[in-house]
User: Fold these one by one.
Assistant:
Number 1:
Amino acid sequence: MSRAARLALAGAAAAVVALVIGMIAGGRAFPRIIPGLPDAGAVVRWGLPVSKLLMDVTGLLTVGLLLMAAVLLPNDKGVLGRPALHYVKAASWAALAWAGAAFLAIVFGVADSMGRTVPQVLNGAYLSSYATQTTQGVALTLVVLFGVAIALFSRGAITAGAAAGLLVFALVTLLPVPLTGHSSSSPNHDLATSAVALHLLALALWVGGLVVLAAHALRREPQLEVSATRFSRMALWCYIGVGLSGVFSLVARLGAVSDLWTSEYGMLAVAKIVAFVLLGYVGYWHRRRTLGQLESGRPGAFIRLAGGETVLMLATVGLAVALSRTPPPEFVGPADRAFDLLGFPLPPEITLGNVFTLWWFDLFFAVVAALLGGLYGLGVRRLARRGDRWPPGRTVSWFVGVGLLVFATQSGLARYAQVMFDIHMIEHMTLSMIVPIFLVLGAPVTLALRALKPAVRKGDRGPREWITTILHSRFTKVVTHPVVATAVFIGSTYALYFTPLFESAMTEHLGHIWMTLHFLLSGCLFFWVIIGVDPGPNRLPYVGRLLMLFVTMPFHAFFGIALMMMGTVIASGWYEQLGRTWGDTLLQTQRDGGAIAWGFGEIPTLIVLLAIAVQWYKDDTRQARRSDRRAGRTGGGDPELDSYNAYLARLNRADKGE
Ligand code: HEM
C-alpha cells in the first residue's frame, strides 16, 4: 500500500475513533429510549453522524483538491500542469462522494427526525417532502445537486480559471447546511449559523489544503516547495479564521462560561480547543523549521509533520461532528415569537436614539467589512512604503463606504430593518445606492493591481494575475455590460418585492445574507459601470453614463409608487408573527417604504452627477494637456488641427473656383 494510502487510512480511522469517543462523551451513543416515543434505532443513530462526517470530509477534500490545482500549484499561462490535472480529476470523484454522503444524510436525517427506520423511510414519501419542504432538507438537496454538478464540470476542466471557478462553487456548496442547521435553535441563531459557515469555509481551505499537500509530499510530486510556501501563507489566516469563528460559534451556543466544564457540549468543545492549540503549534514548527528544510531540498521533516497534522485534523473533524450531534446546554430565552424569529427581543418603539444605540453584532457582515477595510488599508500602506502616491480622496471614499456598510448592517438600523418595512427600505437603499458609490470611487482594483507584486514565475498566476484574468474574462465583460448591469440593478428589486422571495429572505438567515449581499453587489456593479475609477471592459462615454443613470430613475419612481398604491402587505406572514404593537400599521410602513424608495434615489443621483462632472472635467483637461503636449512635440502645429485647416482651405479654394 502506498504511503499516501496509508495516511488516508490513518486519517479516516482517527476521524471515526474521535467521532465514536465524542458520541459517547456527548451522551449520544447510548441514549435512554423512552417507551412510547419513536426510536429510529442504532443504525440511524450512528448512520446520521457517520454520513455527516463523510459529508464534511469529502467536502473538505473536494475544496483541498481544487485549491491545490487552481492556486497552490504553479500553472503555465493558465493551463494546468500534470499534477494539477490529476487533482481536478480526483476532485470530480470527491465531489461525487460528497453528493452521495449528503444523500445519505437526507435519508438518515428523515429517519432520525421521524423516529423511523431506514427501510420505512425509503418506502414512504417522507424523503421527497423532507428534501423539498424543510430548510435542512432543501440545504442537503442543494449539496447533492451542486456536488454532482462539480463532479461533472471537473471532468472537463483543464485551465486554472475553470479549476478556480469550481473551487468557488465548492466553497459556496459548503454553506447551505450550516446556515440552516440546528444552530438556528441556539440563543443567538444568526451568530451561530454565520459562525459555523465561516468556520467551515476557513476549515475547508486549511484542512482540505493540508490533506492534499501531505499526499502530494508523500507521493514525491513536483513543485512541493512552491505549493507548501503558498499554503503556509494562506494557512495562518485560515487558522485565525477557524479560531475566531469557532469561539463565536461557542459564544452563540453557551449561556455561560461555566457551561464549558459543566456540560458535555462544553467539554467536547474544550477538547477541540486543545486540538486547535496543538495544530497551531505544529503550524508554528512548520514555519520555524520544516519549510526551511524543504526549501533546501530536505522534505523529510515536513512530510512527517504534515502526516501527523493531517491525522490530528481529521480526528478533530470527527470530534466536531460529535459536537454538532450533542445538544448544547439548554437556553431559556424570552418565550416570545419575535425572539425566536429575530434571535433578539423585539426592539422598543423606534427613535433616532435607538437607531444609533441599539447595535446588534452581525458576524457575517462584520467579517466582510473587516476584510474590505483591512485589505484596502494594507494596499495603501504598501504603496506608501514604496513611496508611491495614492490619492487620499480615494482612501477616504473607500472608508466612508465601509463605515456606512458597518452602520447599515450592525447598528439599530439593521435591527429595525427586520421589524419595519420602511426602515428595511432605508437599509436597502443605503446598501444598494450609497455604499457602492463610495466603494467604487475608492478604486480598489487599481490599488490592488498597483500594490500586489507580479507572480515570481513567468506565466504563473499570483493574486495580481488572477485579478487581471478576471477583469478580462468573458464573465466580467457580460456582467458589466450597461444593459446587464442596469437590468440586474432594477429587475432584481421588482423580482424580490413582488414575489414570495422577500418573505423567505426575511425568514431565513441564509436568505437574509443573500439579500443583503445582492443589494451591495448589484449596486457596486451598476455604479462601477457609471462612475467606477477602476479599469473595466465596458467603458461608456460620459453621455452614455448619464443616460444609464436617468434610465433607471423612472423605474425607481414606479417601484416606489407601486408600493404606495398596494392594498396588501408584502411578507405579511413575517411581520404579523413579530407582533409589533407600537408605531404605524404594517400597510402604512409599507407605503412609507414606497415613498422612501421613490425619494431616496435623489441623493445618489446628485452624488453621481457630481462625480461624473468631475471625472468628465478631469478627462477633458487630461486630453487637452495631451494634445497640447503632442502639438509641442511636432513644433507648434497640431497634426489633426492642421489637416482640418488644410481641408477647409481646399474647400475655400474650390468655392472660389481656383
Ligand atoms: C478554537 C477552536 C475551535 C472551536 C471553539 C470550535 C467550535 C465549534 C463549534 C461550536 C461548532 C458547531 C458545532 C455545532 O453545530 O453545534 C464547530 C463546528 C465544526 N468544527 Fe470547530 N471549533 C474549533 C476548531 C476546530 C478545528 C481545529 C477543526 C478541525 C480541524 C474544527 C472542525 C469543525 C467542523 C468540521 C465543524 C462542523 C461540524 C458539523 O456540523 O458537521 N473546528 N466548531
Number 2:
Amino acid sequence: MLYRLMLFALASSALAAPANAQNPTAKAGKYVVELRIPEEGLFAGEEIDIEFRVMDSTKNDEILGMAGVPNVKVEAVITMPSMEGMPEAKPKVHAEGVPGDYGIESFFPHGGDYKIELALTSPNEPTFKVAFTVDVKDEKPAKGKPKPYVLQIVDGKGAKAGQPFNLKLRIQDVKSKLTVKAFDMAHEMYFHLLLASKDFQWFLHEHPKMAPDGTWTVPITFPASGEYFLYSDVAPAGKGSQILIASIKVDGPKPSWTTSWKIGTSGQDRGIQGSISSFGGDYPVAKMTTLVLKITDSTGKPVGDTVPWLGAAGHLMIFSQDGHTVVHSHPAHGEENARLVKQGEMRFSGRFPKPGIYRIFAQFQRQGKIHTIPFTIEVKP
Ligand SMILES: [Cu+2]
C-alpha cells in the first residue's frame, strides 16, 4: 500500500525527517512529530481519528525512546491543494491517554491528496509548525461509518412537476441531532444546491437562503414526475467541505426526455459548443486527473470572453451513474489558467473513484448567461 508523502516543516529550524509510509515524521527544532496513519489507510466520507505523537529529541530514553511532550496546544488545518477554493477544515485535536499522544478528528469529503498542517505550542515555548501530505482513498463502497452531517428535506411532500415548489432543507449534525446554523463560505455562497433527475438528464445548480432557524429554502420547478437527487455542497464552520445527498419524489406528467447514457464528450448549450477530455488521454480510476474543457461558438471559434461566476472561471460537477459519487471542481486561479480561459479552455481537477459511466456538467458565465453543458464519459477499469 503506497502513500505519497511530502513533509513541510515550516519553522526555519525544521528539518525533514526520513519518511516512513505508515508513520511519517517531521522534525522542528528539538521536537519530532510522528503521524500515525491507520493500518487500512485513510478513507473519504467517514470520521477518522488520526493520531500523532509529539516527542522531545533531547529527552531520549534508551528503552522508552524519545519522551512524549504532554499539554501541547495544537491547531490543525486540513486543505486539498489540488482543489483551490475548497474551504479548509479546522478539525478538533484532543490529547490521547498516553502523554505526548494526540488525535485529529478528521473528515475527508472525497479521495485525493490532502495537506495536514499542525501548529504546536508547548507550554512557555514558541509555536512550531509541521505539515504532512496524505493520500486519502475514495469512500468505501460498502456503508462505512456514518457521515457527521446529513441533508434533510423539511416537508418534502407535494412537489408537482411544472409548478414552483418551495424546497426547504436543513443540515443536521448527526451526533447532536442539532440543525447546523454556522457555515464557512465557499465560492461566494454558503450553500450550493445541485439537483438532478435520477438519470441525470436534467440538472440545476441553485443557492438556497438560510432562515434564522437554520432551514434553507429555494423555489424549484421540477420538469417532470420521478425521483430527483439533491446534493448540498456546504462547509459547516471549521469542518471543511461536505457534499451530502438526499432525494425527493415529484408527481405529475412523465418526462418528455429519454434516458440516455450514451458516451458523449461534446455538448452544447444555446449556441456554445463544448468538448471535454482528459489531460492524460484516459480517465484513471481513483487518481486525481486534469479534465480539459474547450468551448467554441457555432462557427468553431474559441470562446474567450467568459467571465468568472461564483468566484471561479467555471464549475465542473461530476456524478457517477448511481449518483453516489460527486465531485465539484473549479479551475485553479493563476496566470496560466487565466491565459487559457482567454483561449476558450478551462482545466479542472477531477477524480473517478470507480470504473463506470459518469455524467459531467460544465458551467460558466458569458454575456450575462450561465451556460450548462452536459457530457457523458466512461471510466475504464
Ligand atoms: Cu453554487
